[in-house]
Structure formats: structure tokens, C-alpha cells
């Protein structure tokens, strides 16, 4: 009641605020008899626009994945390259080839994001809209490539990513020095640095952060079938059939 006329939900009352934001990045929200001020109502009964609104919102969301997931991929590729150095395998041809594959996949996603943005257009209202077909192609690729990038990162990290001693073991007065000795691979690197990079890769590929990199890549902005439906609608197959008819001189 106190938030009427100001907010659709109070931001200082029980249920919303730092109590939750510092513990989880995803929440389940139930809107139960929420008051919405008139100046925050953007559609009032115009249900004929609901479909277009959802599709365009989804298009912008899918466009953005050509940037946000690529940024995470850049960091994971950097971690994979660094751990290869720490493992002493960075000069092996198959290691370099796997890193090239990771870059290829990641930059393909970025290319899709750039393409759907640069081929966008301005509407009469003045706002710009992305190329809907390429935005969905971008997101459909995102449902696949981060998984392969993550798999290659796990491959490059080595089995130590799963069998590594705990932080408590590193700090142990009894065995800490032994762990430091046997996990150190070169003079320029201490075992703790190697440990940090391995833990980072572990977290991003199979830990808490993997939810936002892998699972979110699958279902965020719509699950794969949603993109396939939009690609089917935007494909303009009739035009493509006319192309082959023209080439083969078919009426």
C-alpha cells in the first residue's frame, strides 16, 4: 500500500532488496495483486500488439547474446591459454589447435551479433530494430557453441581440474609445502596461480557460474525451438524457390 503511485513493488520492503541480490542471481517472482501506476502502463488492453511486443523483445534479447556470452567466452579462452602455459603444454600443436577452435566458435557468435545489428533498420518512431532472422540465428548458435568451448576448456585444463587439492590443503602447515612443490610446473609460476586458474575454469564450466554461461545459453532468451520457429517464419523460402526456378528456367 505504501508504494502506490511510486513503484509497482516496494524496493525497501520485505521480499526485494540486497537480502536476496547478494545470495542469488536468479529469483522466482509472483505478482499478486500488484498496483501499477498509470504512467508505467505501456499497453492497456491493446492485446493485438502483444505478439509483436514479445517477438521484438525476444529479438533484442537474442541479439544481445552475440555480445554477453562472447565476452564470457573471451575470458574462458584466456584462462584456457594460460593454464596451457602453466601445464607446460602451450607449444603442442594439438593444444594450439583446440584454442584456435575455441576462438573460431566464439568469434562466429560475435559475427552473428554484429551482423544482426548492422543489418538492422530504423522504424517510424525513431527506434532501431535488429535483423530478426540473424538475431535468431545468433541465439541458436549460442545454444551450442559455449558448450563446445567449455568442453575444450575442460580438456585443456587436464584431469587436475577435478582432482585438485582443496584450499585448506594448500594452507595446511603439514602438507601445504608439498602441494606447492609438486603442483609447481615452472620457475615463473607458483602453484597457487595454477590453482586459481583451474578453479576458475571449474567454476565456469561445471560450477555455479556455469548456470549463466552454459544453461543460460541454452534457455535464456528462449529455448532452441523458439529460435527455430522464428527462423522458419523469417526464412522467406518462397523467394529462395524463385531463385532456383530462375536458374533452371522453371515457370
Automatic annotation (TrEMBL):
Q: Which GO terms describe its molecular function?
A: oxidoreductase activity, acting on the CH-CH group of donors
The UniProt record lists the HpaB/PvcC/4-BUDH C-terminal domain at 50-248
Under the heading InterPro entries, the entry gives:
AcylCo_DH-like_C, Adenylosuccinate_synth_dom2, HpaB/PvcC/4-BUDH, HpaB/PvcC/4-BUDH_C
Pfam families associated with the record? HpaB
Lineage of origin: unclassified sequences, metagenomes, ecological metagenomes
Name assigned to this protein: HpaB/PvcC/4-BUDH C-terminal domain-containing protein
Fetch the Gene3D superfamilies from UniProt.
Adenylosuccinate Synthetase, subunit A, domain 2 (1.10.300.10), Butyryl-CoA Dehydrogenase, subunit A, domain 3 (1.20.140.10)
Amino acid at each position: 500500500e505504501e508504494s502506490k503511485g511510486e513503484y509497482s513493488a516496494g524496493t525497501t520492503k520485505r521480499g526485494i532488496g540486497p537480502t536476496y541480490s547478494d545470495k542469488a542471481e536468479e529469483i522466482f517472482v509472483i505478482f499478486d495483486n500488484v498496483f501499477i501506476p498509470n504512467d508505467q502502463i505501456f499497453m492497456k488492453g491493446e492485446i493485438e500488439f502483444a505478439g509483436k511486443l514479445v517477438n521484438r523483445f525476444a529479438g533484442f534479447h537474442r541479439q544481445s547474446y552475440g555480445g554477453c556470452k562472447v565476452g564470457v567466452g573471451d575470458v574462458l579462452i584466456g584462462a584456457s591459454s594460460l593454464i596451457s602455459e602453466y601445464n607446460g603444454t602451450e607449444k603442442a600443436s594439438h593444444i594450439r589447435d583446440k584454442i584456435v577452435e575455441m576462438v573460431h566458435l566464439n568469434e562466429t557468435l560475435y559475427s552473428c551479433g554484429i551482423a544482426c545489428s548492422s543489418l538492422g533498420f530504423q522504424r517510424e518512431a525513431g527506434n532501431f530494430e535488429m535483423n530478426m532472422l540473424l538475431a535468431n540465428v545468433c541465439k541458436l548458435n549460442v545454444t551450442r557453441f559455449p558448450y563446445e568451448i567449455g568442453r575444450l576448456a575442460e580438456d585443456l585444463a587436464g584431469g587436475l581440474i577435478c582432482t585438485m587439492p582443496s584450499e585448506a590443503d594448500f594452507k595446511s602447515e603439514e602438507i601445504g609445502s608439498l602441494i606447492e612443490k609438486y603442483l609447481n610446473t615452472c620457475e615463473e609460476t607458483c602453484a597457487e596461480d595454477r590453482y586459481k586458474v583451474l578453479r576458475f575454469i571449474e567454476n565456469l564450466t561445471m560450477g555455479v557460474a556455469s548456470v549463466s554461461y552454459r544453461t543460460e545459453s541454452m534457455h535464456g532468451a528462449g529455448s532452441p525451438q523458439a529460435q527455430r520457429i522464428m527462423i522458419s517464419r523469417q526464412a522467406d523460402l518462397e523467394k529462395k524457390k524463385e531463385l532456383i526456378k530462375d536458374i533452371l528456367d522453371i515457370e
